[in-house]
User: What shape does this take?
Amino acid sequence: MLITISLSVITTNKLQSQELSELKEIKIGILSKRGAMKVHYHWSETAQYLQQKIPEYQFKIVPLKFDDILNAIETKKIDLLLTNSAMFVDLSFTHQLYPLATVKRKILGQAFTEFGSVVFTRTERDGLNWLTDLAEQDVGAVNEHSLGGWIAALRELDSIGSKVEDFNSLEFLGTHDAVVYAVENRSVDVGIVRTDTLERMAEEGKIILSTFKILKNSTTKIKPKNNDLNFPFFISSQLYPEWPIVSLEHVPDTLSDNISSALIIMSKDSKAASQANIMGWTIPKNYHEIRLAFKQLNLSFYKQKNELSLQMLFNKYWLALIFILSAITLFILLIRYIFSLKNTAQQYKDKALNLRQYDPLTKLPNRRYFFEKVNRHLFIALREHRKCILLIIHLEKLDNVSQRFGYHITDRIIQRASIRVLRILSQNNFMGKLSDRNFVVLLSDEYSVNHVESLLQEIINEISLAFVTKNGFNVEIGCCIGASTYPNQATTLKILLKKSNDALLKAKKRGPNNFETYSSTVSTTVSTTNSTSTL
Assistant: This one.
Protein backbone atom coordinates (compact mmCIF):
# COMPACT_ATOMS: atom_id res chain seq x y z
CA MET A 1 0.00 0.00 0.00
CA LEU A 2 2.80 2.44 0.97
CA ILE A 3 4.74 1.54 -2.16
CA THR A 4 1.65 2.27 -4.29
CA ILE A 5 1.11 5.69 -2.65
CA SER A 6 4.80 6.59 -3.06
CA LEU A 7 4.77 5.65 -6.73
CA SER A 8 1.59 7.72 -7.20
CA VAL A 9 3.18 10.80 -5.55
CA ILE A 10 6.36 10.43 -7.62
CA THR A 11 4.31 10.08 -10.83
CA THR A 12 2.22 13.16 -9.93
CA ASN A 13 5.34 15.24 -9.21
CA LYS A 14 6.90 14.19 -12.51
CA LEU A 15 3.75 15.14 -14.41
CA GLN A 16 3.61 18.53 -12.71
CA SER A 17 7.30 19.09 -13.46
CA GLN A 18 6.74 18.08 -17.08
CA GLU A 19 3.75 20.44 -17.42
CA LEU A 20 5.82 23.32 -15.97
CA SER A 21 8.71 22.65 -18.35
CA GLU A 22 6.32 22.73 -21.31
CA LEU A 23 5.16 26.27 -20.47
CA LYS A 24 6.43 28.96 -22.85
CA GLU A 25 9.14 31.06 -21.25
CA ILE A 26 8.97 34.86 -21.39
CA LYS A 27 12.25 36.57 -20.51
CA ILE A 28 12.11 40.03 -18.94
CA GLY A 29 15.34 41.95 -19.49
CA ILE A 30 15.97 44.56 -16.80
CA LEU A 31 18.67 47.25 -16.84
CA SER A 32 21.03 46.44 -13.98
CA LYS A 33 22.66 49.49 -12.39
CA ARG A 34 23.67 47.88 -9.08
CA GLY A 35 24.31 44.24 -9.99
CA ALA A 36 22.30 41.16 -10.93
CA MET A 37 21.49 40.21 -7.32
CA LYS A 38 19.71 43.53 -6.75
CA VAL A 39 17.66 43.03 -9.92
CA HIS A 40 16.53 39.55 -8.87
CA TYR A 41 15.74 40.78 -5.35
CA HIS A 42 13.54 43.65 -6.53
CA TRP A 43 11.81 42.06 -9.53
CA SER A 44 11.49 38.28 -8.94
CA GLU A 45 8.11 38.83 -7.26
CA THR A 46 6.89 40.70 -10.36
CA ALA A 47 7.75 37.64 -12.47
CA GLN A 48 5.81 35.48 -10.00
CA TYR A 49 2.90 37.91 -10.15
CA LEU A 50 2.73 37.79 -13.95
CA GLN A 51 2.90 33.99 -13.94
CA GLN A 52 -0.08 33.89 -11.58
CA LYS A 53 -2.04 36.25 -13.83
CA ILE A 54 -0.98 34.52 -17.08
CA PRO A 55 -0.46 30.87 -16.03
CA GLU A 56 0.21 29.55 -19.53
CA TYR A 57 3.61 31.29 -19.53
CA GLN A 58 6.70 31.20 -17.34
CA PHE A 59 8.33 34.57 -16.66
CA LYS A 60 12.07 34.82 -16.06
CA ILE A 61 14.12 37.84 -14.92
CA VAL A 62 17.27 38.55 -17.00
CA PRO A 63 19.57 41.27 -15.55
CA LEU A 64 21.33 43.23 -18.30
CA LYS A 65 24.21 45.66 -18.19
CA PHE A 66 23.99 48.82 -20.29
CA ASP A 67 26.23 47.37 -23.04
CA ASP A 68 24.32 44.05 -23.19
CA ILE A 69 20.85 45.38 -23.98
CA LEU A 70 21.27 46.01 -27.72
CA ASN A 71 22.61 42.50 -28.34
CA ALA A 72 19.84 40.97 -26.23
CA ILE A 73 17.22 42.72 -28.38
CA GLU A 74 18.79 41.90 -31.72
CA THR A 75 19.33 38.21 -30.86
CA LYS A 76 15.87 37.92 -29.25
CA LYS A 77 17.37 36.73 -25.96
CA ILE A 78 14.61 38.70 -24.21
CA ASP A 79 10.92 39.27 -24.89
CA LEU A 80 10.24 42.23 -22.59
CA LEU A 81 12.53 45.07 -21.47
CA LEU A 82 12.40 47.32 -18.42
CA THR A 83 14.86 50.17 -18.87
CA ASN A 84 15.26 53.88 -18.31
CA SER A 85 13.25 56.31 -20.40
CA ALA A 86 16.19 57.74 -22.36
CA MET A 87 17.46 54.31 -23.39
CA PHE A 88 13.96 53.27 -24.51
CA VAL A 89 13.67 56.31 -26.78
CA ASP A 90 17.21 55.78 -28.07
CA LEU A 91 16.50 52.13 -28.94
CA SER A 92 13.11 52.94 -30.49
CA PHE A 93 14.84 54.84 -33.30
CA THR A 94 16.19 51.55 -34.70
CA HIS A 95 13.93 48.85 -33.20
CA GLN A 96 10.19 48.25 -32.92
CA LEU A 97 9.50 48.50 -29.17
CA TYR A 98 5.98 48.77 -27.78
CA PRO A 99 5.40 50.35 -24.32
CA LEU A 100 3.08 48.26 -22.14
CA ALA A 101 3.10 50.28 -18.91
CA THR A 102 4.96 53.03 -17.06
CA VAL A 103 6.23 52.38 -13.55
CA LYS A 104 4.80 54.38 -10.63
CA ARG A 105 7.95 55.09 -8.64
CA LYS A 106 7.60 55.04 -4.84
CA ILE A 107 9.41 58.05 -3.38
CA LEU A 108 9.00 59.01 0.26
CA GLY A 109 5.75 57.04 0.40
CA GLN A 110 4.13 58.64 -2.67
CA ALA A 111 3.66 57.49 -6.27
CA PHE A 112 5.30 59.40 -9.14
CA THR A 113 5.34 58.70 -12.88
CA GLU A 114 7.48 61.68 -13.92
CA PHE A 115 10.82 63.14 -12.98
CA GLY A 116 13.32 65.76 -14.13
CA SER A 117 16.63 67.40 -13.26
CA VAL A 118 17.56 69.57 -10.32
CA VAL A 119 20.54 71.94 -10.61
CA PHE A 120 21.91 73.06 -7.25
CA THR A 121 24.81 74.65 -5.41
CA ARG A 122 25.74 75.50 -1.83
CA THR A 123 23.53 78.07 -0.10
CA GLU A 124 26.36 80.53 0.59
CA ARG A 125 27.21 80.91 -3.13
CA ASP A 126 25.78 84.42 -3.63
CA GLY A 127 26.82 84.67 -7.29
CA LEU A 128 24.96 81.50 -8.25
CA ASN A 129 21.18 81.89 -8.35
CA TRP A 130 20.02 81.09 -11.91
CA LEU A 131 20.85 78.65 -14.68
CA THR A 132 22.41 81.55 -16.58
CA ASP A 133 25.09 81.84 -13.86
CA LEU A 134 26.95 78.60 -14.72
CA ALA A 135 29.69 80.22 -16.84
CA GLU A 136 33.20 79.66 -15.42
CA GLN A 137 31.86 77.17 -12.85
CA ASP A 138 32.97 73.59 -12.14
CA VAL A 139 29.93 71.40 -12.84
CA GLY A 140 29.33 67.81 -11.74
CA ALA A 141 26.68 65.50 -13.30
CA VAL A 142 25.87 61.76 -13.19
CA ASN A 143 26.75 60.59 -16.73
CA GLU A 144 26.15 61.73 -20.29
CA HIS A 145 23.35 59.18 -20.83
CA SER A 146 21.43 60.03 -17.63
CA LEU A 147 18.12 61.78 -18.36
CA GLY A 148 17.59 63.17 -14.87
CA GLY A 149 21.27 63.48 -14.03
CA TRP A 150 22.26 65.43 -17.16
CA ILE A 151 20.10 65.51 -20.34
CA ALA A 152 16.97 67.19 -18.90
CA ALA A 153 19.11 69.96 -17.36
CA LEU A 154 21.20 70.28 -20.53
CA ARG A 155 18.02 70.90 -22.53
CA GLU A 156 17.04 73.76 -20.19
CA LEU A 157 20.54 75.25 -20.51
CA ASP A 158 20.41 74.96 -24.29
CA SER A 159 16.99 76.69 -24.36
CA ILE A 160 18.42 79.78 -22.64
CA GLY A 161 21.63 79.83 -24.70
CA SER A 162 23.92 78.57 -21.92
CA LYS A 163 26.73 76.44 -23.40
CA VAL A 164 28.76 73.64 -21.87
CA GLU A 165 31.84 75.23 -23.39
CA ASP A 166 31.34 78.15 -21.02
CA PHE A 167 31.81 75.91 -17.95
CA ASN A 168 35.20 75.94 -16.28
CA SER A 169 34.96 72.13 -16.16
CA LEU A 170 32.42 69.31 -16.49
CA GLU A 171 32.86 66.02 -14.65
CA PHE A 172 30.61 62.93 -14.75
CA LEU A 173 30.77 61.30 -11.31
CA GLY A 174 28.80 58.08 -11.94
CA THR A 175 26.05 58.26 -9.27
CA HIS A 176 23.55 60.83 -8.03
CA ASP A 177 24.83 60.57 -4.44
CA ALA A 178 28.41 61.19 -5.57
CA VAL A 179 27.36 64.45 -7.25
CA VAL A 180 25.63 65.68 -4.08
CA TYR A 181 28.66 64.88 -1.93
CA ALA A 182 30.94 66.63 -4.46
CA VAL A 183 28.92 69.86 -4.11
CA GLU A 184 28.76 69.47 -0.33
CA ASN A 185 32.55 69.16 0.03
CA ARG A 186 33.15 71.87 -2.61
CA SER A 187 34.84 69.57 -5.13
CA VAL A 188 32.50 71.13 -7.73
CA ASP A 189 30.51 74.37 -7.69
CA VAL A 190 27.27 73.10 -9.23
CA GLY A 191 25.63 69.66 -9.27
CA ILE A 192 23.02 68.09 -11.56
CA VAL A 193 20.96 65.10 -10.33
CA ARG A 194 17.48 63.70 -10.85
CA THR A 195 14.60 65.15 -8.87
CA ASP A 196 13.98 63.63 -5.39
CA THR A 197 17.70 62.90 -4.86
CA LEU A 198 18.25 65.73 -2.37
CA GLU A 199 15.04 65.00 -0.45
CA ARG A 200 15.79 61.26 -0.34
CA MET A 201 19.32 61.78 0.98
CA ALA A 202 18.03 64.23 3.59
CA GLU A 203 15.37 61.71 4.66
CA GLU A 204 18.13 59.08 5.02
CA GLY A 205 20.17 61.47 7.17
CA LYS A 206 23.03 61.72 4.66
CA ILE A 207 22.81 65.50 4.11
CA ILE A 208 21.21 68.64 5.55
CA LEU A 209 18.82 70.07 2.98
CA SER A 210 19.42 73.70 3.97
CA THR A 211 23.04 73.32 2.84
CA PHE A 212 21.90 73.65 -0.77
CA LYS A 213 19.88 76.00 -2.96
CA ILE A 214 18.27 75.33 -6.32
CA LEU A 215 19.12 77.08 -9.60
CA LYS A 216 16.22 77.72 -12.00
CA ASN A 217 15.53 79.45 -15.27
CA SER A 218 15.15 83.17 -14.52
CA THR A 219 12.79 83.73 -17.49
CA THR A 220 10.25 80.95 -16.93
CA LYS A 221 8.59 79.30 -13.97
CA ILE A 222 9.06 75.54 -14.05
CA LYS A 223 5.79 73.65 -13.58
CA PRO A 224 4.94 69.98 -13.96
CA LYS A 225 3.05 69.36 -17.18
CA ASN A 226 0.38 67.43 -15.29
CA ASN A 227 -1.34 70.17 -13.29
CA ASP A 228 -3.10 67.56 -11.15
CA LEU A 229 0.21 66.19 -9.90
CA ASN A 230 1.42 67.71 -6.66
CA PHE A 231 5.13 67.49 -7.42
CA PRO A 232 6.86 68.17 -4.09
CA PHE A 233 10.53 67.94 -5.03
CA PHE A 234 13.10 70.56 -6.04
CA ILE A 235 13.19 70.85 -9.84
CA SER A 236 15.06 72.90 -12.46
CA SER A 237 13.65 71.35 -15.65
CA GLN A 238 10.39 70.17 -17.11
CA LEU A 239 9.17 66.67 -16.23
CA TYR A 240 9.68 63.48 -18.24
CA PRO A 241 7.97 60.06 -17.91
CA GLU A 242 9.41 57.30 -15.70
CA TRP A 243 10.80 53.93 -16.84
CA PRO A 244 8.60 51.92 -19.24
CA ILE A 245 8.32 48.17 -19.65
CA VAL A 246 8.17 47.39 -23.38
CA SER A 247 7.58 44.34 -25.55
CA LEU A 248 9.75 43.42 -28.52
CA GLU A 249 8.44 43.08 -32.06
CA HIS A 250 8.25 39.26 -31.96
CA VAL A 251 5.93 39.14 -28.93
CA PRO A 252 2.29 38.40 -29.93
CA ASP A 253 -0.14 41.30 -29.53
CA THR A 254 -2.51 39.25 -27.36
CA LEU A 255 0.25 38.38 -24.90
CA SER A 256 1.43 42.01 -24.79
CA ASP A 257 -2.11 43.18 -24.02
CA ASN A 258 -2.47 40.59 -21.24
CA ILE A 259 0.84 41.61 -19.64
CA SER A 260 -0.07 45.30 -19.88
CA SER A 261 -3.45 44.70 -18.24
CA ALA A 262 -1.95 42.57 -15.47
CA LEU A 263 0.65 45.21 -14.59
CA ILE A 264 -1.77 48.13 -14.64
CA ILE A 265 -4.14 46.43 -12.17
CA MET A 266 -1.28 45.51 -9.79
CA SER A 267 -2.12 46.75 -6.29
CA LYS A 268 0.28 49.17 -4.62
CA ASP A 269 0.09 46.93 -1.54
CA SER A 270 0.99 43.75 -3.43
CA LYS A 271 4.11 41.80 -2.63
CA ALA A 272 5.46 42.46 -6.15
CA ALA A 273 5.05 46.23 -5.78
CA SER A 274 6.53 46.24 -2.27
CA GLN A 275 9.57 44.18 -3.33
CA ALA A 276 10.23 46.47 -6.32
CA ASN A 277 9.76 49.57 -4.16
CA ILE A 278 7.08 50.90 -6.50
CA MET A 279 3.40 51.84 -6.21
CA GLY A 280 2.35 49.73 -9.20
CA TRP A 281 2.04 50.65 -12.89
CA THR A 282 0.01 52.99 -15.07
CA ILE A 283 -0.88 53.15 -18.77
CA PRO A 284 2.15 53.99 -20.96
CA LYS A 285 3.13 57.66 -20.82
CA ASN A 286 3.89 59.71 -23.93
CA TYR A 287 7.68 59.62 -24.42
CA HIS A 288 7.63 62.05 -27.35
CA GLU A 289 9.07 64.87 -25.22
CA ILE A 290 12.30 62.88 -24.70
CA ARG A 291 12.58 62.45 -28.45
CA LEU A 292 12.26 66.21 -28.84
CA ALA A 293 15.02 66.67 -26.25
CA PHE A 294 17.31 64.37 -28.24
CA LYS A 295 16.50 66.29 -31.40
CA GLN A 296 17.13 69.67 -29.77
CA LEU A 297 20.47 68.53 -28.33
CA ASN A 298 21.52 66.57 -31.43
CA LEU A 299 21.82 63.33 -29.46
CA SER A 300 21.31 59.66 -30.33
CA PHE A 301 19.79 59.25 -33.81
CA TYR A 302 20.23 62.95 -34.55
CA LYS A 303 23.92 63.03 -33.77
CA GLN A 304 25.98 63.66 -36.85
CA LYS A 305 28.74 61.09 -37.33
CA ASN A 306 31.80 61.20 -39.53
CA GLU A 307 31.66 58.68 -42.34
CA LEU A 308 34.61 56.40 -42.95
CA SER A 309 35.41 55.61 -46.58
CA LEU A 310 35.30 52.01 -47.75
CA GLN A 311 39.06 52.10 -48.24
CA MET A 312 39.65 53.24 -44.67
CA LEU A 313 37.33 50.55 -43.37
CA PHE A 314 39.12 47.89 -45.42
CA ASN A 315 42.58 49.05 -44.33
CA LYS A 316 41.58 48.99 -40.68
CA TYR A 317 39.38 45.90 -40.59
CA TRP A 318 40.48 43.82 -43.60
CA LEU A 319 41.10 40.67 -41.60
CA ALA A 320 37.77 40.94 -39.80
CA LEU A 321 35.99 41.67 -43.11
CA ILE A 322 37.47 38.55 -44.72
CA PHE A 323 36.36 36.50 -41.73
CA ILE A 324 32.86 38.02 -41.82
CA LEU A 325 32.51 37.48 -45.58
CA SER A 326 33.58 33.87 -45.16
CA ALA A 327 31.11 33.38 -42.33
CA ILE A 328 28.35 35.02 -44.40
CA THR A 329 29.15 32.76 -47.36
CA LEU A 330 28.95 29.67 -45.18
CA PHE A 331 25.79 30.96 -43.58
CA ILE A 332 24.17 31.60 -46.97
CA LEU A 333 25.06 28.09 -48.13
CA LEU A 334 23.61 26.67 -44.93
CA ILE A 335 20.42 28.71 -45.28
CA ARG A 336 20.01 27.59 -48.90
CA TYR A 337 20.40 23.99 -47.82
CA ILE A 338 17.84 24.40 -45.03
CA PHE A 339 15.37 26.07 -47.36
CA SER A 340 15.79 23.26 -49.88
CA LEU A 341 14.73 20.81 -47.13
CA LYS A 342 11.81 22.96 -45.94
CA ASN A 343 10.34 23.89 -49.30
CA THR A 344 6.79 23.11 -48.17
CA ALA A 345 3.39 24.27 -49.32
CA GLN A 346 2.87 26.19 -46.09
CA GLN A 347 5.93 28.35 -46.76
CA TYR A 348 4.66 29.17 -50.23
CA LYS A 349 1.29 30.05 -48.74
CA ASP A 350 2.83 32.40 -46.16
CA LYS A 351 4.99 34.07 -48.78
CA ALA A 352 2.01 34.60 -51.09
CA LEU A 353 -0.03 36.05 -48.23
CA ASN A 354 2.76 38.48 -47.39
CA LEU A 355 2.99 39.63 -51.00
CA ARG A 356 -0.77 40.19 -51.07
CA GLN A 357 -0.74 42.27 -47.90
CA TYR A 358 2.54 44.24 -47.86
CA ASP A 359 4.44 46.52 -50.20
CA PRO A 360 7.75 44.74 -51.06
CA LEU A 361 9.78 47.98 -51.06
CA THR A 362 8.72 49.63 -47.78
CA LYS A 363 7.22 46.59 -45.97
CA LEU A 364 4.18 48.75 -45.25
CA PRO A 365 0.62 47.40 -45.64
CA ASN A 366 -0.41 47.77 -49.27
CA ARG A 367 -3.52 49.62 -50.42
CA ARG A 368 -5.87 46.64 -50.13
CA TYR A 369 -4.66 45.42 -46.73
CA PHE A 370 -4.57 48.98 -45.36
CA PHE A 371 -8.20 49.56 -46.28
CA GLU A 372 -9.23 46.25 -44.67
CA LYS A 373 -7.66 47.24 -41.35
CA VAL A 374 -8.81 50.87 -41.52
CA ASN A 375 -12.43 49.85 -42.00
CA ARG A 376 -12.25 47.99 -38.67
CA HIS A 377 -10.65 51.04 -37.01
CA LEU A 378 -13.37 53.34 -38.35
CA PHE A 379 -16.13 51.03 -37.11
CA ILE A 380 -14.64 51.05 -33.60
CA ALA A 381 -14.13 54.82 -33.69
CA LEU A 382 -17.77 55.37 -34.69
CA ARG A 383 -18.96 53.09 -31.89
CA GLU A 384 -16.80 54.87 -29.31
CA HIS A 385 -17.58 58.37 -30.66
CA ARG A 386 -13.95 59.11 -31.49
CA LYS A 387 -12.50 61.13 -34.35
CA CYS A 388 -10.00 59.82 -36.87
CA ILE A 389 -8.01 61.71 -39.49
CA LEU A 390 -6.93 60.23 -42.83
CA LEU A 391 -3.72 61.62 -44.36
CA ILE A 392 -2.38 61.18 -47.88
CA ILE A 393 1.34 62.00 -48.08
CA HIS A 394 2.68 62.61 -51.58
CA LEU A 395 6.47 62.57 -52.12
CA GLU A 396 7.74 65.34 -54.43
CA LYS A 397 10.83 65.74 -56.66
CA LEU A 398 11.40 61.98 -57.15
CA ASP A 399 11.58 62.33 -60.97
CA ASN A 400 14.63 64.59 -60.60
CA VAL A 401 16.25 62.06 -58.27
CA SER A 402 15.68 59.19 -60.72
CA GLN A 403 17.11 61.14 -63.66
CA ARG A 404 20.21 62.23 -61.75
CA PHE A 405 21.03 59.24 -59.54
CA GLY A 406 19.03 56.29 -60.84
CA TYR A 407 15.94 54.40 -59.73
CA HIS A 408 17.78 52.43 -57.03
CA ILE A 409 18.47 55.68 -55.16
CA THR A 410 14.83 56.72 -55.58
CA ASP A 411 13.69 53.42 -54.05
CA ARG A 412 16.08 53.90 -51.15
CA ILE A 413 14.73 57.41 -50.52
CA ILE A 414 11.14 56.10 -50.49
CA GLN A 415 12.19 53.47 -47.93
CA ARG A 416 13.93 56.02 -45.71
CA ALA A 417 11.03 58.47 -46.00
CA SER A 418 8.60 55.80 -44.77
CA ILE A 419 10.87 55.08 -41.79
CA ARG A 420 11.04 58.79 -40.90
CA VAL A 421 7.23 59.05 -40.88
CA LEU A 422 6.85 55.86 -38.82
CA ARG A 423 9.22 57.24 -36.16
CA ILE A 424 6.96 60.26 -35.73
CA LEU A 425 3.68 58.33 -35.46
CA SER A 426 2.55 56.73 -32.20
CA GLN A 427 1.81 53.02 -32.03
CA ASN A 428 -1.96 53.63 -32.17
CA ASN A 429 -1.72 55.23 -35.62
CA PHE A 430 -1.62 53.14 -38.81
CA MET A 431 0.38 53.71 -42.01
CA GLY A 432 0.27 52.07 -45.44
CA LYS A 433 1.49 52.43 -49.04
CA LEU A 434 -1.27 53.92 -51.21
CA SER A 435 0.61 54.07 -54.52
CA ASP A 436 4.11 54.42 -55.95
CA ARG A 437 4.75 57.83 -54.35
CA ASN A 438 1.90 58.13 -51.87
CA PHE A 439 1.68 57.01 -48.24
CA VAL A 440 -1.63 56.89 -46.37
CA VAL A 441 -1.98 57.29 -42.59
CA LEU A 442 -4.92 56.92 -40.20
CA LEU A 443 -4.52 59.01 -37.04
CA SER A 444 -6.70 57.45 -34.35
CA ASP A 445 -5.12 58.32 -31.00
CA GLU A 446 -6.42 61.36 -29.13
CA TYR A 447 -3.07 63.17 -28.96
CA SER A 448 -2.43 63.00 -32.72
CA VAL A 449 -5.98 64.08 -33.61
CA ASN A 450 -5.86 67.07 -31.25
CA HIS A 451 -2.42 68.17 -32.46
CA VAL A 452 -2.77 67.26 -36.14
CA GLU A 453 -1.32 70.48 -37.56
CA SER A 454 1.88 70.25 -35.51
CA LEU A 455 2.14 66.56 -36.43
CA LEU A 456 1.78 67.33 -40.15
CA GLN A 457 4.41 70.06 -39.83
CA GLU A 458 6.78 67.61 -38.18
CA ILE A 459 6.25 65.05 -40.97
CA ILE A 460 7.03 67.70 -43.60
CA ASN A 461 10.13 68.82 -41.66
CA GLU A 462 11.46 65.26 -41.39
CA ILE A 463 10.94 64.39 -45.07
CA SER A 464 12.51 67.71 -46.10
CA LEU A 465 15.79 66.83 -44.35
CA ALA A 466 18.43 66.11 -46.98
CA PHE A 467 19.47 62.51 -47.70
CA VAL A 468 23.14 61.73 -48.37
CA THR A 469 24.23 59.08 -50.86
CA LYS A 470 27.23 56.83 -50.26
CA ASN A 471 29.14 59.05 -52.68
CA GLY A 472 28.46 62.12 -50.56
CA PHE A 473 25.76 63.78 -52.69
CA ASN A 474 22.94 65.64 -50.93
CA VAL A 475 19.51 64.60 -52.22
CA GLU A 476 16.51 66.71 -51.23
CA ILE A 477 12.86 65.87 -51.75
CA GLY A 478 9.65 67.31 -50.38
CA CYS A 479 6.10 66.29 -49.73
CA CYS A 480 2.51 67.54 -49.68
CA ILE A 481 -0.18 66.26 -47.34
CA GLY A 482 -3.97 66.24 -47.60
CA ALA A 483 -6.18 65.45 -44.61
CA SER A 484 -9.86 64.88 -43.83
CA THR A 485 -11.71 63.98 -40.63
CA TYR A 486 -13.96 61.02 -39.81
CA PRO A 487 -16.89 61.12 -39.18
CA ASN A 488 -17.22 64.94 -39.38
CA GLN A 489 -16.47 65.15 -43.11
CA ALA A 490 -17.15 61.62 -44.29
CA THR A 491 -18.91 58.53 -42.99
CA THR A 492 -17.33 55.99 -45.36
CA LEU A 493 -13.73 55.22 -46.19
CA LYS A 494 -14.30 55.87 -49.90
CA ILE A 495 -15.55 59.41 -49.28
CA LEU A 496 -12.89 60.02 -46.65
CA LEU A 497 -10.18 59.03 -49.13
CA LYS A 498 -11.63 61.26 -51.85
CA LYS A 499 -11.74 64.30 -49.58
CA SER A 500 -8.17 63.74 -48.38
CA ASN A 501 -7.15 63.50 -52.03
CA ASP A 502 -8.98 66.74 -52.84
CA ALA A 503 -7.12 68.46 -50.00
CA LEU A 504 -3.85 67.00 -51.32
CA LEU A 505 -4.44 68.43 -54.78
CA LYS A 506 -4.97 71.88 -53.27
CA ALA A 507 -1.75 71.53 -51.25
CA LYS A 508 0.21 70.47 -54.36
CA LYS A 509 -0.94 73.56 -56.24
CA ARG A 510 0.89 75.62 -53.60
CA GLY A 511 4.13 73.78 -54.29
CA PRO A 512 6.20 71.25 -52.30
CA ASN A 513 6.13 71.09 -48.49
CA ASN A 514 2.54 72.18 -47.85
CA PHE A 515 -0.34 70.53 -46.07
CA GLU A 516 -4.03 71.23 -46.27
CA THR A 517 -7.18 69.93 -44.64
CA TYR A 518 -10.43 69.41 -46.48
CA SER A 519 -12.42 71.78 -44.29
CA SER A 520 -10.08 74.78 -44.31
CA THR A 521 -7.35 76.31 -46.38
CA VAL A 522 -4.36 75.80 -44.11
CA SER A 523 -0.87 75.58 -45.56
CA THR A 524 2.70 75.81 -44.49
CA THR A 525 6.00 76.07 -46.26
CA VAL A 526 9.21 74.51 -44.94
CA SER A 527 12.64 75.97 -45.60
CA THR A 528 15.48 73.53 -46.28
CA THR A 529 17.93 72.71 -43.50
CA ASN A 530 21.47 71.43 -43.28
CA SER A 531 20.46 68.30 -41.40
CA THR A 532 21.05 65.09 -43.31
CA SER A 533 20.38 61.36 -43.19
CA THR A 534 22.66 58.84 -44.91
CA LEU A 535 21.28 56.37 -47.44
The chain has four domains: 23-111+242-301, 114-240, 310-341, 349-534.
